[in-house]
Design goal:
Blueprint lengths: L8 H7 L16 H4 L18 H15 L3 H13 L4 H10 L2 H7 L6 H9 L3 E3 L2 E2 L12 E4 L7 H9 L9 E3 L4 E4 L14 H8 L2
Antiparallel strand pairs: 1-2, 1-3, 3-5, 4-5
């Protein structure tokens, strides 16, 4: 499966905001945004920050793609799915992305970043409703329970993430069940998705 393998800190610098792609590092002064809050590249300092129309819409789309770690074709499929669903298209798009298993593992505190969550899911460390699921894009529903497999409960990366999440917090749409389990209590609302983007601009971009 295609994925971005370059330096992720330059993605945050390009968008001018923390995308929390490097886990714990993003919460320290070592974060690239803290050191060099400018677009990457030789002419980063000279780039104008004033954008209008298409440029603003494109940047909002890129932010969301990069936060959830999906590429263009997959992101377009999510948008088309949201567009066919009743409700507010932009909000539905974020809900679909938020319900991905790799994102839920991160939100539940079983990984320090979405990228690590994707890797842990791929390696088969989690059960959904008692069955092993190793597909990062698996869409969770309200009532689904995600637990760490018995054989993975001593995994250092998972145990470290569980300890680290105390400073990050768990969103309201997730309810912890036991020490290494969590339940999707409800479909996340827009207010519960802590993402500083204007999803309506993405809808306008794809509606042209």
């Amino acid at each position: 499966m295609a994925r971005y393998t370059g330096p992720v800190c330059r993605l945050c610098r390009r968008e001018g905001m923390k995308l929390f792609l490097k886990g714990e590092r993003c919460y320290t002064e070592k974060c690239a945004i803290e050191k060099r809050n400018m677009p990457p590249g030789q002419h980063g300092r000279r780039r104008s920050s004033k954008m209008q129309g298409y440029g603003v819409q494109l940047r909002e789309k890129q932010k969301v793609k990069r936060v959830y770690g999906v590429l263009e074709e997959q992101f377009r499929r999510y948008f088309e799915m949201a567009d066919r669903t009743r409700g507010i298209t932009g909000e539905t798009l974020l809900q679909l992305l938020e319900r991905r298993l790799d994102n839920a593992v991160y939100r539940m505190g079983f990984s320090t970043s979405r990228a690590q969550g994707r890797q842990l899911v791929r390696h088969g460390h989690f059960l959904v409703n008692g069955k092993k699921v190793d597909i990062p894009s698996y869409s969770l529903k309200a009532g689904d329970v995600v637990t760490v497999r018995q054989t993975s409960r001593t995994n250092p990366a998972i145990l470290h993430a569980v300890g680290e999440v105390k400073g990050r917090g768990i969103p309201e749409w997730i309810a912890l069940e036991g020490e290494l389990g969590a339940k999707v209590a409800s479909i996340p609302t827009r207010a519960q998705i802590n993402l500083p983007v204007q999803e309506q601009l993405i809808v306008e971009l794809y509606s042209k």
